Amino acid sequence: MNNLKLLSSKLSTETIEELYKNLNLLKKELFNLRFQQALGELKNTSRFSLVKKSIARIKTELTKRSNSEEY
Fold it and tell me: Where are the transmembrane segments (predicted)?
């Protein structure tokens, strides 16, 4: 994902499969960032917060959808 600043309007138009796909990609990127940090190779530490916030946005959208399906 090139554009990490995901807008909630963009997320609301994606399918659940796309959301899970993006979530997995972001989790892999977060793992790689942690690995680079442990090795001392990480240059852009602000990327951590962007990735974490994007993961939170996707999880929020998934929770919102699952709660709306229950009612």
Answer: none
